[in-house]
Amino acid sequence: MDVMEHRRCPLRTWLALLAVLALAVAGCTSDEPNGVGSGLSDLDFDVVLAPLSADSADGFAALEITDPDRPVDDQEVLYLGQEDGFSSSILVNFSFDDIFNEDHPESLFTAENIKSVKLSLTKLRFYGTAAPDSADTNGAPVGDVATIYYSIHELDAPFDSLAVPGPVPPSDGRELSRDPLAEFGNEPLIPLYEDDFLSWLDAGGERGFVISAGAGSDPGLVGFASRELDSFGELEDLAVGSIVAPNLVVEFESGEVNFLLPPVADSSTFDGVPAAPTDPDAGFVVRTGLRSYPVFRFDFSGLPANVLINRAILAVTNDTTTSFGNLHSLVVSELPVDLYEEPADTLSLEDLAQGVYVVTGQTSMDPALNRTIRFDVTQAVQRLVNHVYEGERGLVITAGEDFAPLYDQGSIDPEFYLSQFDFLGFAAADSLERPHLEITYSLSGDLSGEGE
Amino acid sequence: MRRWGLILLAGAVLLGAASASAQTPLALTNFGQRLDNEDARMAGRGGWGMAVEDSTHPGFKNLASLTAVDKVALNFSAYGDHTKSEDAHGERVTDRVFTPDIRVALPVIKGRMAVTAGFVVDRSTQYDTSVDSTWTAWDDTISGKVQFLRDGSTFRVPLGIAFSPRDGLSLSAALNLQRGTLRESFYNLFQDPASLTGFPLYQTDLLVQEDTYSGTSATFAALLRPVGRIRLGVSWTPAYDLDVDRKIEMGGVAQRAHDHMTYAMPAEYRGGLEVLLQDRWKAGADYQWQDFKEFSGQDAWAADMETEHTLSMGIERIRAHARHGGWDNLPVRLGVRLRTWAYRMGGNQVHETTFSAGTGFPFRGDLGQLDVALSYSMVGDLADNGMQSRVVRLTISVTGLERWW
């Protein structure tokens, strides 16, 4: 028998051929999956996209949120007027000691040389500087321009910053304004009596004043710049050298540049602040400025165990006829129940920030325009029904705070504007306008039993 | 040892090619499809190999034959499928590459004793379906797809020993570590309506069931040479239990369901015959029998279980070493395989018929071989089973031999 002597391909050649064949087959592309073979699965859902409306609450609380870093007398906005149970005046302290300087020596301040003395205020753009229902030059919406009769009285003593918010401090009752109806515009100038100013100069020291919306004023809260204001984007353009805080403006017959006397302290009184409802049947509020946020625990007893939440929408109805204020983000977050007491409690902003887990939000919500507001809380409801947390959690609705950066738009924090969303409660006449969760779920019988 | 590096490289190539995609939809239920995990030499001649005894080209189908091995043998096999499937919903063409068989044999006493180990995929299921669908919820009409994916395999790690007490008789025993997983995923994809950023408003339903198998079986085999031109091979795998841990999860749901079952696997019998014919030709046949009507442990399958049996027949012209023989030196293999599946589909037995052909190419010094086989399978029948598949398969095997001592 012949021995094998013929030439054979080296191993590497065969391996190369093998690799090419293998990769060629591996590189073939299958058709996309289609209906061929369908219907053979033993695996299936017993319930698919079942609807459930959760429209009752197991618990509710109205949370008043405090911010020790930004007390009322340190806020950037001063509020004047009455609206929806709120009332506020402006408190200002001026010091008449050592006010003279090189440009304005004491010799200028005589009865003959003083042409006028006025109290100047600077209104925020949102509260209107033009005709009602108009838009500003940037196209941003503006509130109606309210007619205000400015009433000014001297307080018996300079106001105490620790006493605000609170009742208006006592005054002598004498009207200091010569013409309470100041002109429209972003810088109302309220004329005062020159003799009063000269007497304050003569006496020296610190004096307190209260500026109120007098009889005949339109309802509504109007915001003015305080001495702490640094969000100048919320103002119309101002003349160079303007003081945005309430200040006294002295005009001279001799033609010198006006003398401006800034305040040493200012604050809103917020002497009337309605309590946030604590019965969710009657309604609930989301309030900025003086923050108040509602938190709910919905009743999930209608849901079977171990369901997959396909979608969950929190729907709330805002009463646009009573709500007021600027546009705001509204944010829904989870909040552990053990952080607060029902039906009302006070939390610091820091504690709230540390306790929440942000779920979702809506931006640019208009209190006077957006009636039905819906939030996609699918993941949150899935977590809640999964019992993935120790202890219970509620859903809290807040404004666009720093802890929700996706919804914290612009540089204005929620304490800047006093706004309020009045939401209809669980006893609203129209059941569709009650707060509720529209839940859509699926369920497999394979998981409806005991799990781990 | 350089040769071994190359052979291992070949194995790596085959394993790397195992990026499987889909097989027949008939495997979408029950145990799945029994794989033809023989090497390409056997695949080319229809799959028979129970009575093989070849020192230069060991067959691992009957471990008793490994007493003939006088070198360390390493074998990789892989195949690529091109499948056209059809049912009442239409047609689908799929491709996949799979590596069902890796084996090694080590002679302890040349001609008398050898040990072996390996990795063998016995059954596999891998297919996905997708059907457009619509649902309603609240005021929304939702459109999307219902998708199902079944993917998994059962495999064993045989650890065996072969011993020849006297000439003409070899015996073997193997301990098989039975393992595997089967994962089924069911999706309701709610694609529309979607948000402005493209995310569907309704979360996808996802239900996943995963079975993990573990068990131990034993296989006993014998190879007989009663007369010069005839060899007989038999094997027996006694009935054994396969523990099944089942886990069911739903997407987004924290809770899981667990279950435990025991599958009672029926005994499996194999027998084979090889006859040396004139010149370089030989013929052979194998028969495999496993009565899955005796299977228990999964009530949902009970009504459909069948007796699985396979008849493999073929002929082979063995290779020659003639000087200037050229192509005439190459081996030629032809075969046919007839199989009845372990379960019914559409109320009827599933029949699988495969025609195959193959050849091989020896390495230098007869220290290994590369074999290829091409086969065509007809699986199921549209009228009887509601669906059918036609499979073109290329099987490739690499066998390497090395004198370690």
Structural description of this entry:
The complex is a heterodimer of chains A (452) and B (405). Chain A is built from 4 helices and 23 strands. Chain A is mostly beta strands and 452 residues long. Chain A folds into 2 domains: 49-68 and 276-447, Jelly Rolls, CATH 2.60.120; 86-268, no CATH class. Chain A is elongated and about 105 Å long. Chain A starts with 10 loop residues before the first helix and ends in a 9-residue tail after the last strand. With 405 residues, chain B is mainly beta. Helices cover 7% and strands 61% of the residues of chain B. Chain B has 4 helices and 17 strands. In chain B, strands 2-3-4-5-6-7-8-11-12-13-14-15-16-17 form a 14-stranded antiparallel β-barrel. The model of chain B is unreliable at 16-21 (pLDDT under 50). Classes of the chains: A mainly beta (452), B mainly beta (405). Chains A and B meet through helix 1, strand 1, strand 16, helix 4 and strand 23 of A and helix 1, strand 2, strand 3, strand 4 and strand 5 of B.
Summarize the entry for a quick read.
The complex is a heterodimer of chains A (452) and B (405). Chain A has four helices and 23 strands. Chain A has 452 residues and is mainly beta.
